[in-house]
Design goal:
Layout lengths: L1 E5 L9 E6 L6 H5 L8 E6 H7 L8 E6 L8 H13 L7 E6 L1 H13 L5 E6 L2 H7 L4 E6 L2 E8 L4 E5 L8 H17 L11 H7 L1 H5 L3 H21 L14 H10 L7 H18 L5 H13 L12 H9 L11 E6 L2 E5 L4 H5 L3
Parallel strand pairs: 2-9, 3-4, 3-5, 5-6, 6-9
Antiparallel strand pairs: 1-2, 7-8, 10-11
Helix pairs in contact: 3-4, 5-6, 5-9, 6-7, 6-11, 10-11, 10-13, 11-12
Length: about 350
Amino acid sequence: MERIDVKINPTQGSSYPILIGENLLDNPYEHIRKCTSANRFLIVTNDKVHSLYGNKLASDFSEFIILPDGEEYKSREILGTIIDKALKLKLERKDAIIAFGGGVIGDMAGFAAAIYQRGIDYIQLPTTLLAQVDSSVGGKVAVNHKLSKNVLGSFYQPKLVLADTNTLNTLDDRQFKTGLSEVLKYAFIEKSCKAEVDYHFFEFLETHRNEIFSKNHEILKKLIKICCLLKSSVVNKDEKEKGLRAILNFGHTYAHALEIVTDYRYFTHGEAVSIGMKIIFDLALNTGTISREYYNRSIKLLKDYNLVTDFNIKLDEELFYDAMKSDKKVSDGNINFVMPVSVKEVAMRNNIDKKHILSGI
């Protein structure tokens, strides 16, 4: 088992461990009870995860709420059903919520925990690659609005992230590659994460593709660990996205707009991110921000992992641009982009004209 300690405001109790390994769900409460004094647990999950792994968390001190799965269900209405369940169970402040699923479940369960009785403990048990490498770490919790993604939310840290790599065995190809989009994001931003160690993650992904797709658990554990180390390096320095943490949105400005204009139904989040990264690499090349050599190497990595980089649907450019303008990263009316500037390094840019912004769609 690998352990990473996220060290956010240690004096305020915001630090927590990330545990990564096989068979961790065989005794989940052994790990959970070391991180919370909760007496009862509301487990938020979806039907697929419940059918596969629900028996591992079933107990006489826990209750399940089973939600529909999909980004289109990350809404105020579904959030309300979690709160309703907590009220019916008469959960108290000393109780806790467990997010048991992918990124959608984690975001909604975490937000429910953040606002229920002004905050109760919650635990992240991520079961998808995307959630294990990214969304379960860092305390961003939210729901979507039809006009803006994740616009209703908070920063609220879990007490524990427990990532059992065995759950990745049951992911279909589409969901596995959805997670790989966020994995590749870390390769493209590694130098800017200001980690204490150079993990050579880009090179790691270039040389371990076959083991990753065959779901070699030792390689997956290393991959997840590196992503979590990079993200925790950023979050430890900038919990609430006042500066550095914005780099984690690489590819996401286009991705979020794409999700909004397609009503969160056409692409998975990871597919939208990989499309967004391809567009931002094109933009960087066309504006002279990066070299042709680095561009070719980066696009090759996206293609080697068979990620979605193109879409064959007609978009209304004005609606798309309006969606981008509703993004949380807009400042003083300017859209802020996380732009690649050199090998594995990114920087914020907000001086890009509308014509160039829309050239990629």
